[in-house]
Amino acid sequence: MEQVKVLSVWMSPFGIRPLIALEERGVKYDYQEEALPNNKSDLLLQMNPVYKKIPVLIHNGKPICESLIILHYIDETWGSEKFLPYDRALARFWADFIDKKIFETGFRIVISKDEAQEQAKRDMLENFQLLEGAMKEMSGGGSLPFFTGKDLGFLDFAFIPIICWFHTYESIGNFKIPFETEYPLLDAWVKRCLERESVKKILPSSDRILELGFKIRKRYGVD
Description:
Elements: E1 4-8, H1 13-25, E2 30-33, H2 42-47, E3 56-59, E4 62-65, H3 67-77, H4 88-111, H5 114-138, H6 154-159, H7 166-173, H8 179-182, H9 184-194, H10 197-202, H11 206-219
């Protein structure tokens, strides 16, 4: 019998990615919540001895680490329809952009104040503008409901986890992200994603993430 297990933590955007992908593919899996950072399980240390980080997908005893690599593995292992579009390089480029720009600027909003936070907010809006342009290009001017097709794909999985952080960015940064007026394709995309059963099941609530955001600020001595 096939055995699939995921090691992760509930709030991790990187851990959320493979969970939604597995739900979309209808793959049954066991989930193990890790107590990070100070109480990592023996299984996590055994399955990811190099980085000792989540997420880890364990398939029949074989560990696969790093969220985007896990998405590739799920794509190759289960289902006939592929997550990755024909232009794989473009999708991978924008997934990397999400990791290095979107997540990074969001984190700066959470842990900073004054001018540093103002700059982070400006950077975030600029990044969303770039991503809006990318979606326009890849979705045929918005004719496709998701980034590269009629169904959720690789880039959608990469970006979906950030949705539950929007309220935290706005609340802690004391600003409004103008999705409806400035980023209409992303706005429509968010609404479609939130209608998916896989997303409803896995994505944490915005209120829970906001509570986490304030704890992070306190940990960094901002407030």
